[in-house]
Structure formats: structure tokens, C-alpha cells
Task: structure prediction
Amino acid sequence: MQTRIYADHAATTALSPAARDAMEPFLQVAYGNPSTLYNLAREPRKAIVHSREIIAAAIHADPSEIFFTSGGTEADNWAIKGTAFCHAPGKGIITSAIEHHAVLNSSVALDRMGYPVTTLPVDTEGVVNPAVLKAALTPETVLATVMLASNEIGTIEPISELASAAHEKGVLFHTDAVQAVGHIPVDVNALGVEMLSASAHKFNGPKGVGFLYVRTGTPLIPLMDGGGQEHGMRSGTENVAGVVGMASALQEHLDRLEQEASYLQGLADILIAQLRQNRFDFRMNGSNNRIPGSLSLSFKGADGEMLLHRLDLMGTAVATGSACNSKENELSHVIKAIQVPEDYANGTIRITLGMDNTKDQMYAIADQIHKIIGVQS
Ligand code: PLP
Result:
């Protein structure tokens, strides 16, 4: 029987059994609405308080600075639009060319509403240069938003330098940390950001839940008006089980952060060594300062989409560019932005590993690629 290999952990991850166990009581037993006054609400309310403490500690924030959302997309939309809407149109924001579409399309929407958007280029490793940000800041800029780690090429951005450059001109800084939280150490004070987005399903939590960190005193307009939950900043009945599952999964990742990093690095090294041994003509995209186990590989003369489908037929799940973007047939905006040479660009696949992957699977993936595209040089 063919064994399945899941190598697309940047797209999503399986719910951890411990997180599932932690969630269970809040689905059918302690299901009270946390905003109500009777006894059935006590446990869910306590669970939300406790989860907020765990999540705040994980990123070195205060619990009052954590606002639960429906995921990374909502957190990004809120940080960007909620900051801009504190000002009249004419004020603008700055972002980078390699952001996730949750950021890019929030920016496009703002631009249409009269808040001009400047998009910064990146270098060939996908890094945003703080000097380039500095030069782009104008008296009209109210926010700069650059992701902490790329979902497509894994590059980790110099966020503390970028945030300092923004602050020198009194500009607020947001980072989309959806691919980073739970995978590398994240400290909002070391990063110096005013806002940070995260999403539970990227670290073995449930889908449809995430959070926005908002530093105390940061001006931000709520996008969800209603019953005044989350201190009036994000109305809507709390996703209690989701929030509990997110906190549990995040704590589990934090407890094994270093172990996970070295295990995933080891697996990635095996795969790369194997591909080199098979004499493929390929390039690794992104910087060496990257999310562990995140590989963007461009095979010369190959067709990335064909590779994805053939690997899928062999039982292996990988991505071409970003999963959230997989309906687009054209070349990923990130691969374009880092200027991968044309004869390699079309042959790009993303392999993102997780703790459920094994060494044997790395040999199997290399072997499958060999069967599909053969020896190249
Ligand atoms: N930002 C980044 C960098 C992502 O990788 C993703 C998901 O792929 C998102 C935002 C969107 O997060 P969510 O799926 O929770 O809406």
C-alpha cells in the first residue's frame, strides 16, 4: 500500500491530540456563552482568561494585549485597515512585495479607499532592506507592515531593524507572524512591533482561530462591531474551544521549539543532500536565516505544477507557491519578487516539513522527484 507523505505544513497542520483533548469539554459540556452571568459560563470564561495568559507569555506580551480573531487573515486585515481608519484618506501605508495575500489584498482595498500603498522590493533572498524602508517613509505614512517569515520561501525578515526605521519617523509597525509563531522564538519586545498576527492552524491548533497582538496604547479602530467582546475591540461570541486548542497547541510547540528546529533542519538536510546526490539542477530559494524545515526549490526546466500533481499521485503532498494562492496559475508573486531566473522559476515547489515527517520520507520524496524529472545534468 502506498504511504501518504504530508509535506505542506506551511499550508496547514493536523490538530494535535492534546489540543483536541483540551478543546473537547468546551464543545458539549462547558458550552456556556462566556458573556452570560450564570454558572455554565464560569468554566469557559476561566478557560479564555487562562488561554490568553498562555498566549501572551508565549510572545512576551501582557494578556490585555492579545485579541482573539478568526485567524491570520482577520488579524492582518484588522491591523492594516484598523490603523489606517484612525486617519482620514490621504494617509498611507508601506508593505513588501512578498507578503501573504491577506496583507497584500488588505492594502489593495485600502489604496482603493484613498489610502495610498507603497510596496517595497526585496533582495534575491526575499529580505526587505531597512534602508529601503527608511527611504520610502513619508510624513503621510502611518503604518509599515512586513511579515516575520515568508510562507513561500521561509525567509525570516529583520523585523527589529525595520520596526526601528519606522519608529524613527513615528510610524507604527505590524508584522504578519503567521508562519513564525510556534516555530521560532517570538518576542514582541525584542521585535519592537506594535502589532503582530498569528494563526492556530499553522502550529497544530484548530482552523478558524488566531490572534492579533496590539501593544498597549496603539491606536486601532475595531472592524467588528457588536456585543463588545474582547474589551470592545472585537465583537462576536468567543470561539472558546478554538481559543483553548490554540493555547494548548502553542504551549506544546514552545516546549519543544529547539528540538523541533533541529529535527526539521536534519530532515531538510537529508532531502537536499539526496537531491544533490541525484544530480538535479535546482536552486534553493530564500535566505539561510529561515523557518526550520521550510524549503522552496526551483528545478531547472521543470514544471512545478506538474511536479505537484505527479507527487500527489505518488502519495506526497507539496505546494507550488502559497496554498492560499493555489488557484492562480501564474507564477507566484514571491518567486517573481526574488527574481528566480526564468528557466528555474516555473519548476518551483515548496516543501514544508513537520514533526510527523521521517528520514525515510525524505529519501522517498527525493526518489519520487527522480522518477518524475529524471537526472538533469
Ligand atoms: N499570513 C501568512 C503568512 C500565511 O501563511 C497565512 C496562511 O496561509 C495567512 C496569513 C492567513 O492565515 P489564516 O489561514 O489563518 O487566515
